[in-house]
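re: the backbone from monday

yeah here it is again, tokenized this time
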């Protein structure tokens, strides 16, 4: 019996093995802008591919099938395309800096506190022995 978990798709990545031919990979994009950027990258790198559209109940996917020998190249292209189209996690620049400075300040206070109490920690360790 075939392993059902092997075909379980949770959507964490946008590529999978081809369902019929194990020598091919299938990249899927639900955003047409990402699909167009990926297509342009494939064409500019002279990678042969097949393209198809799959319509589900609520989402239309653009699929790209290509040989697995191009895996490393296409993964770099995939990351590049995702980076071009992704929104920042914290959209406001000021808020990003505040979060960064708060985190660094907390880390600095922790390090300073550790070194300040080093003698106390050494005495406690000696008493345990």
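seq for it, each position gets an aa:
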């Amino acid at each position: 019996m075939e392993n059902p978990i092997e075909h379980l798709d949770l959507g964490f990545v946008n590529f999978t093995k081809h369902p019929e031919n194990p020598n091919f990979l299938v990249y899927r994009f639900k955003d047409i802008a990402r699909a167009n950027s990926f297509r342009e990258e494939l064409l500019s790198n002279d990678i042969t591919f097949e393209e198809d559209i799959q319509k589900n109940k609520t989402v239309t996917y653009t699929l790209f099938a290509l040989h697995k020998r191009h895996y490393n190249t296409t993964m770099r292209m995939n990351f590049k395309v995702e980076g071009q189209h992704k929104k920042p996690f914290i959209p406001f620049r000021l808020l990003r800096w505040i979060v960064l400075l708060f985190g660094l300040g907390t880390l600095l206070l922790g390090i300073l506190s550790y070194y300040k109490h080093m003698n106390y920690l050494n005495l406690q360790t000696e008493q345990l022995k």
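The domain at 4-85 is CATH 3.30.70.2750 (Alpha-Beta Plaits). The beta strands are 15-17, 24-29, 50-55, 60-67.
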